[in-house]
Each structure stands twice: as structure tokens, then as C-alpha cells.
Amino acid sequence: MAEHPGISLVAIRFLFHPDTLDEAITPDPHPNPNSNSSLDENFLAEFKNKTSHNNSVKLEERVVKNAAEAIEIIREYHRCTMFVVGERQRVNSLLD
Fold this sequence. Notes:
Domain Cation/H(+) antiporter C-terminal: 1-88
Organism: Vitis vinifera (Grape)
Pfam families: CHX17_C (PF23259)
Order of helices and strands: EHEH
Structural class: alpha+beta
Protein name: Cation/H(+) antiporter C-terminal domain-containing protein
Region (Disordered): 23-42
């Protein structure tokens, strides 16, 4: 699709600012090499490699402190066709 001269693709990766991670959201200290985050990293590396020569495709990595900042970034693209893909962060049970 991004090969069409009138179409561009912007992929935005949201990264949490490390100083603002809430106690309920905890990154896994022992990531599994077969985990989704490892798969994500591999996919993104391949994506960057395959699209580095294509000016109509770009990847932006944006650091956010909270959901409001993520929503603000999404609103920057309000005139675009948008697909939101992702998964929830691991949340510690409040019952533990």
C-alpha cells in the first residue's frame, strides 16, 4: 500500500517514560526471548531495515508519560486513516 505514490505510512510506537511507570504497571525484569516484546523488537528491526530506503514509510518512536500524552499524539493524526494495534501492559493484581 505504501508503494503507491499518493500514500504514505507512519507507524508510531509508544514507549512509556521509565520514570513514570506506575507501580501497577511493571516491565518484566526477566524477559522471555520468545515473548511478544522480543517479537516486537525483531519485527521493528526488520521493518526499519526494509523501509529505510522508502521516503513514504517512517517509524516514529514517541515517549509518553501517561495516556493523555498518547491521546494528544494520536490527535495529531486526526485527518488520517488510522489503525491502532497493541496490547495491554502487564498489570499486577491488586489481590496479591
